[in-house]
Structure formats: structure tokens, C-alpha cells
Amino acid sequence: MSSNETVAARERLIVLLSAVLVGFHLYTSAFGSFPDLIQRSVHVGLALMLAFCLYGVRRDDARQSALGWVDVLILLAVLAFTAHILVSYDRMMGFTFRMTTLDYALGVVAIVLVLEGCRRVIGWTIPVLGMLGLVYALMGPYLPGPLAHRGLDPKLVIEVLYMSTRGLYGMVTGISATVIAIFVIYGAVLLRTGGGQTFMDLAIILGGRSVGGGAKVATIASAFFGSVSGSAAANVATTGAFTIPLMKRLGYRPAFAGAVEAVASTGGQVMPPIMGAGAFIMAELLGISYLTIMTAALIPAGLYFIGCLAGIHFESKRLGYRPVEPDQLPKLRQVLTIRRAGPVFLSLAVLIGMLVQGYSPGFAAFAATAVLVVFYLLGSGDRASLALRLRDLKTGFVDAGIGLVAIAVLIAGAQILLSMISTTGLGVSLTAGIIGMGESSLLISLLLAMLIAMLLGTGLPTAAAYLLAAAVVAPALIKLGVEPLGAHMFIFYFSILAGLTPPLCATVFISASMAKANWVPTSFYAIRLSVVAFLIPFAFVFHPEILLVGSTLQIVIFGVTAMFGVVVIGAALAGHLVGPLSHIEKAGFLTSAILLIAPGWVLPLIGVALLSVSVAWHSRTKIKSLIK
Prior knowledge:
Number of helices: 28
Shape: globular
Helix content: over 70%
Structural class: mainly alpha
Order of helices and strands: HHHHHHHHHHHHHHHHHHHHHHHHHHHH
């Protein structure tokens, strides 16, 4: 077989595995999943095979290289340890189950290949953490001081990780294999069947006419995209391909254009209704419905994007950035045609409506996907159009399969460390240490939680970073009196924001390269535009009303004061409100904004008073200057 033929064989195999993976999840979402161990092992096995087809040994794109004998051996090994779980299931469920030599051998193969799959997909972070977890579990008696424990037998470690629902196929893998998978499929198909262009056109209509219109378009478009994709990198790659050239054409500095896209795309992960994989994991860890998570995220997401838009608006006024040219504004009646936008918004309505009605998130996403596919095909006017739309659907399903790879493989890899943390009791020890520090100051524990989440988030996707940080930090924050939802949302936010902060600001690197800008000034702009995002988690810890926990009056009061606070921060950091701000005025605005989110009632009331004085002073000064 020639090299070109083996390359084509690899591509056909990628399409086939994507189709099988997507078909498996569509079937189980509609008709019910298999027993946990079977559902999760098939999910991980198919995703892992697809990962080895997509990524080479050097973590490069393997799609243009020939399918070699090493690749075939690896694929057969993954197939073997996955099939072994299926054929051994009845034996494993029996009261007299004992591990065999074959079980142990395939268990070792499974652990090694999951770690290698993680390395190829995302790099060394998860494999190193997983190996550290294994070393800690096996070497417990030889470790110093509080780290020491009795140690685990190597055979027990293999059994727990491979042939139980406490290891590779643990609870979080279960969430990935049921709920997350179908939402990834829905998002990929939605964006491929017209959702992407529809969202972009609506963003231009809503934000393009005002000052800084190009940057506002990027923000609104990323909010739309994030509501279905849940991935900052995907947002940057999709919306940035249009918005970054648009901003540069309107005269924006390349670094500023890249920063706007990075900040807006990062915020897409906290935007309902989908919010990314982390939100589904959060619902399972807290034992509450996803609808509760989705509604709780509404005000924080609104504050994030209001703060971002405010910063862009005042910065654009200061720098004189102009709106989008009128001839580039699409017509609303052309965008909202039934044939074009109907399937998009009808499917979203079905999704949200079924969630509100109490249907499971997995079935709601399946129904939304089915509605989207049916109405998209019905919109074809002739046979040629139908063929094009079928091709779009095929591409969307392949995209979905590839999108599932990172989530499934990385979560399975993260489960190695999580399993070792829980089995050895390390999590309890770490929680006790954090509680000890928090007894003197809750703020210290919150800062530590922020640091842990951001450190993990620098090298991991959001879902994995949140998962690992939540396992250690969330129980401690809850025991210190933080609302459980607030504790988990706090960790979730900072796991996301790690993509904006040096030295490994992955989202900024992508957007800066697209803008052809240096990443250092791009990161500087990004941090300045996202300062609000770093304050929001502290706000909903001290005021859980922002997460819709409390009376309606309290929710309204703290929601409104927080909104004024984020707008004021945007003006203060830009140095411009009605006109330029003096240093004293900037200090007054920033102080009032911080007081608005402080604990209790007294400090927020002082913040309201200081803000009123600051606005009045600035307005009076500006009027005087106009008179002169």
C-alpha cells in the first residue's frame, strides 16, 4: 500500500471512529445508557483510538502522515482492553470476582495508553500529575511527615483504576460519557449548520454601530459562540478569524484587538445555556440539576460581559476607535429568515424549554440536535442544496467526534490522580490544611483556592483544572461557611481565567498570533479588560445573592450594585467616563467599586455613597470645562 493510500486510510478511520463515537452517544442519549462501566469504557476507548489517529508521537497533527504498524498496534491494544471490559462485565459483577493475570496486564496497558493519549492531546501536565499520584499511592510508607500513609498494593491500584468505577471509568468520566458528550455534539452541529454565521451577523447588528463597534462585535459574538461551544480556544479560532481583522481594519492596535478577542472568548465559558464541560461536572459534584447551575450563572455572566463591554467602550472613547462601517452591517431581516436562522433558534428554544420542563440535560440536548438536523435538511430547496447540507452535517459530526477526544481522554487521565487522592486520603489532609489557614481569614483561603485553580488552569483545559481543584479546595471552602454553589463557581471561574494570565496564557497566545501582535502587551490589555472577572468570584462568595441564593429583594439590590461596580471599574481603568479622569477620580471610582462587592451591608452602602459623590464630582468638572 502506497503512502498516499495509508494517509487516506487514516482519514477514513478518523471519519469512521467519529461516526461510531457520535452515533453511540446519540443512541444512548435517546434510548438510555448502558451500565456505567460499559458506557464509560466504550466512551473512553473510542475517544482514545481517535486521539491516536489524530495526534502523533511528537504531539503533531498526524492526519497527513501514513498509518504505520506502531499506530495499528496501539489501536489494537486500546480495542483489546476496552473489549475486555465488555466481555468480562458479568464476571466482574459476580460475588466471587477475582482479578486474573490477563486483567492485570490489560490494566497496565490501559493506564499507560491513557496517560500517553493525554500527553499527545494536551502535553505533559496530566501525565505527570497522574504519575505523581501513582508514586504517592505506592510509596506512602517512605514519604516524610504528614504526607506518609500506609501505601497501596500495586495490584489494588490496577484493579481500582481499570476494573472499577473509581478509576479511569469514575464518576466524572460518567458525566463526560453521558451529558457532556451530547452537548459537544449539539454545539458542533449547530455551529456547522448556520449557527456560527447567524451569531456573528447578530453581533454586528447589536454592537457594530456604537463607539468601539468592532471590539463590541467580538465580545457579543463570543458570548453567543460560548453559549454553545464552551471552549475559549474554539471561540478565538472561530470568531477571531473575522473580528480580529475587522478591528485592525478599523484602526485598533493589534495587541488590543487580540486582547479583546481573548477576554471575550474566555467569558464564553461562563455563558449559559451550555457553559462548557465544567458546568456539567459541577452539577454532578453538587448533586443539583444543571438548570440550577445555568440560572445561577446568569448574573455573573451578565456582569462579566457588561464589564468587558464597559471597558471596551471607555477605552474606545479615549482612543477614538470608530464603529463598523455602515456598508458592512448586515440587514436584520436577512439574518432572521426562517430558512437560515429558524433551525438555530428553534433548536435552542427546544433545549432551554426541555431543561426548564425538567427533562434530563442529555435528552434535552439530543432533542435539540434532532430538531436542528431535521429542520436544517427541510430548509434545502433542491437536490444540490440538500447534498451541500448533508455534507455540512457530516462535517459537523466529524467535528463533534474530534471535539470529544480532548474531553474524554483528559478526564480519564485526570481520574488517575483523583482516584489516588481519594484512595490514599490525601484529599482529607489537604482540606484540613486549608481549613486551618481559613480559621484566621476566609480571604486567605479564597486567595489560596484562586492560586491553586489558576496554577492548574495554566496547563490544563478548564474542565480538568476545575475538577482537580474542586476535589481539594471546594470541601475546605464549604466547611469554612461558603455556599457550596459559590465555592464551586469560584473555583470554576479562576480555572477559566488562567488562560488570560502569564506565563502560560494559552488563550492570549492564540489571539495574539492571529492578530500578529506580541503576546506580552496583548496579555497586559487582556488583564486590564478582565479585572472585573477577577473580582466577580469574590463578589458571589461574599454575596451569594448574585448566584440567585437569597430573597428577591437582596438579589436585585446586589445584582444592581454589582452592575454599577463593573461599569465603574471599566471607566476607571480606561481613565475616561464623560471625559478624561484625574488620578483622584480614578481612585475614587475604583474604591467605590471594591466597596460595592465587600461583605455585609455597611461597606456596600459606603460604596454607593462614594460612587454617587465621584460621579457628581466628575460630571461637575466636565460641565465646567465645557463652559470654559
